[in-house]
C-alpha cells in the first residue's frame, strides 16, 4: 500500500512538472533530500529522480509560467565552480569512479540552477522550505523520539543508501534544518502550530545529540551562539538556552559523555587522528597537483603516496579538505567564495527585510539561513558533505529571496496561503478566529 501511494504521488509530480516545472523542482528536492523511495519495498531502484528531472527540464522550455534567467553573483560562481570541476575531471587519479561521482554532482548543481530560474514567488520559497523541513524532519523527529525512549544508548542513523546514511551525516542535516523550522514557526499564527513546531525542534536537537556525533555538538553550539548574539534580550536568551541544553544533555548516557570528551583529547582518539591524517593527505595532494586528484581519491593507493600514515585510510570527513583534495586550491577558493556570498546575501535579507511589514518574513528567513550556514560551516568541518543538495538549497532560498526583495515583488504579488486547507477545516478554524497561516 505504501509503495502504491508513493508511486501515485511521484507519477503526479512527473505529470505536473511538464505544465508547472516549479512543482518538478519541489518534487526533485523532496526525492533527493528525503529519498522516500528508499522506504518502500519495490521502488528503490526505479529512476524517479531522472524522470522528474527530465520532465522539469522539458517543462522549463515549454511552460508559459514565469522564468527568470537573470544572473546573481551566487549562480555565476556556482557555474564557474561547475566549469572548474569539468576542467579537473580529465586529471582525475582514479578516472572511472571519479566520472560517476562527477555526473552525480553535475546533475545536482544543474537542478540548483534550474530551481533559481523557476522559483520566484513567496509561495515558492515557503513551499521549498516546507519540503526541506519535512524531508529531514521526518527522520529527525523520529530519531529524537527514539533517543528519548532509549536514553541515548543507541545511535541515530539516516536512511540507507543515501548521502545521509551515516550518523554524522544525518546529524549535520538535522542541524541545518532546525533554523528553517524556526523560520516557519515565526510565520505561524495558531498556538497549536507554534507548539507543535517547538516540540519538533526539540526532538530534532535530541536526534542530533543521539547521533553521538561530535561535529553535531559543535555545530549546535555554533548555532546557539549566533542565535544568542541576535537575540534582543541576551540575558533571558542565555537562560533559556542553558535550561534547554541541560534538559537535553541530562538524557544522554555515560558513553555519550565519554565520546564527547574526546574532543579535548583528540590526540588519543583513533578516529580523530585518522581524520587529521586524511586532511594532511588532501593538503599534500593539492600542493603537488594544481588540479587536485579528482573525485574518489580517498583510497589506499592515494594515501600511500600523500598521507603521513599511508596505512590509516579515511574519508575526508571535512567539506573543506574534501574539496581541497579533489579540486585543488582553486576549487576550494570557489567553494568558500560561493558560500561566503550566500551568507552575506542572507544577511542582506535580514537587514533590508525589516524595512516593510510585507518583507518582515524575508528578514526572518535571512536570519535563519545565516544560522543554518553557521551550523554547516562548523559541523561540515568534520563531515564529507561538500556536494550534497541541502546546503545548495539554502543558496536557492537566499538568491530567490534577494531577487524578490530587489524587485519589490510584494507590490504586485497576491498574498496566497502556502497550504490550501480543505473547506471544512478552514471553516472550523475560522469560527475560532485562528486560521493557520501556513
Q: Can I get a quick summary?
A:
The protein contains 17 helices and no strands. With 438 residues, it is mainly α. It has two domains: 1-65; 66-265 and 315-428, no CATH class.
- Give the amount of beta strand, in percent: under 5%
Dominant shape: globular
Task: Give a count of the beta strands, DSSP E runs of length 2 or more.
Answer: 0
**Number of individual domains:** 2
Q: Distance N terminus to C terminus?
A: 29 Å
Specify Rg, calculated over alpha carbons: 22 Å
Bin the helical content.
55-70%
Number of helices: 17
Largest sheet: none
- Give me the strand/helix succession: HHHHHHHHHHHHHHHHH
Overall pLDDT confidence: 87
Q: Outline the low-pLDDT stretches.
A: none
> What structural class results from the helix and strand content?
mainly alpha
Subcellular location: Membrane
Membrane topology: Multi-pass membrane protein
Transmembrane segments: 41-63, 75-95, 101-120, 127-150, 170-188, 200-229, 235-254, 290-308, 328-349, 361-384
Protein name: O-glycosylation ligase (Exosortase A-associated)
Amino acid at each position: 500500500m505504501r509503495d502504491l501511494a508513493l508511486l501515485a504521488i511521484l507519477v503526479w509530480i512527473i505529470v505536473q512538472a511538464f505544465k508547472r516545472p516549479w512543482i518538478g523542482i519541489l518534487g526533485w528536492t523532496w526525492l533527493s533530500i528525503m529519498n522516500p523511495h528508499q522506504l518502500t519495498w519495490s521502488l528503490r531502484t526505479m529512476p524517479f529522480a531522472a524522470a522528474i528531472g527530465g520532465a522539469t527540464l522539458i517543462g522549463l522550455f515549454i511552460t508559459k509560467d514565469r522564468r527568470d534567467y537573470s544572473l546573481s553573483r551566487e549562480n555565476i560562481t556556482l557555474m564557474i565552480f561547475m566549469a572548474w570541476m569539468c576542467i579537473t575531471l580529465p586529471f582525475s587519479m582514479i578516472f572511472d569512479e571519479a566520472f560517476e561521482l562527477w555526473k552525480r554532482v553535475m546533475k545536482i548543481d544543474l537542478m540548483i540552477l534550474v530551481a533559481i530560474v523557476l522559483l520566484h514567488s513567496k509561495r515558492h520559497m515557503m513551499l521549498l522550505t516546507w519540503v526541506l523541513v519535512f524531508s529531514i524532519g521526518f527522520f529527525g523527529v523520529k530519531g529524537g523520539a527514539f533517543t528519548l525512549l532509549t536514553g541515548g544508548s543507541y545511535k541515530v542513523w539516516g536512511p540507507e543508501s543515501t548521502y545521509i546514511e551515516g550518523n554524522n551525516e544525518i546529524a549535520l542535516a538535522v542541524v541545518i534544518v532546525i533554523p528553517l523550522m524556526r523560520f516557519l514557526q515565526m510565520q505561524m499564527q495558531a498556538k497549536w502550530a507554534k507548539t507543535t513546531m517547538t516540540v519538533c525542534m526539540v526532538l530534532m536537537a535530541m536526534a542530533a545529540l543521539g547521533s553521538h556525533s561530535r561535529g553535531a555538538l559543535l555545530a549546535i553550539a555554533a548555532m546557539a551562539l549566533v542565535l544568542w548574539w541576535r537575540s534582543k534580550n541576551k540575558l533571558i536568551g542565555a537562560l533559556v538556552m542553558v535550561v534547554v541544553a541541560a534538559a537535553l544533555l541530562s538524557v544522554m548516557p555515560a558513553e555519550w559523555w565519554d565520546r564527547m570528551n574526546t574532543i579535548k583529547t583528540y590526540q588519543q582518539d583513533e578516529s580523530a587522528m585518522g581524520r587529521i591524517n586524511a586532511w594532511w593527505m588532501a593538503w599534500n595532494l593539492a600542493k603537488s597537483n594544481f588540479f587536485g586528484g579528482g573525485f574518489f581519491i580517498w583510497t589506499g593507493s592515494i594515501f600511500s603516496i600523500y598521507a603521513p600514515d599511508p596505512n590509516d585510510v579515511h574519508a575526508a570527513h571535512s567539506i573543506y579538505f574534501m574539496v581541497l583534495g579533489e579540486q585543488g586550491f582553486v576549487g576550494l577558493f570557489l567553494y568558500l567564495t560561493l558560500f561566503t556570498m550566500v551568507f552575506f546575501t542572507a544577511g542582506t535579507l535580514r537587514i533590508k527585510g525589516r524595512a516593510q511589514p510585507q518583507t518582515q518574513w524575508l528578514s526572518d528567513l535571512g536570519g535563519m539561513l545565516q544560522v543554518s550556514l553557521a551550523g554547516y560551516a562548523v559541523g561540515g568541518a568534520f563531515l564529507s558533505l561538500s556536494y550534497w543538495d541541502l546546503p545548495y538549497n539554502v543558496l536557492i532560498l537566499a538568491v530567490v529571496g534577494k531577487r524578490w526583495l530587489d524587485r519589490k515583488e510584494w507590490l504586485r504579488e497576491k498574498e496566497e496561503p502556502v497550504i490550501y486547507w480543505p473547506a471544512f477545516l478552514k471553516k472550523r478554524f475560522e469560527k475560532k478566529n485562528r486560521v493557520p497561516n501556513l
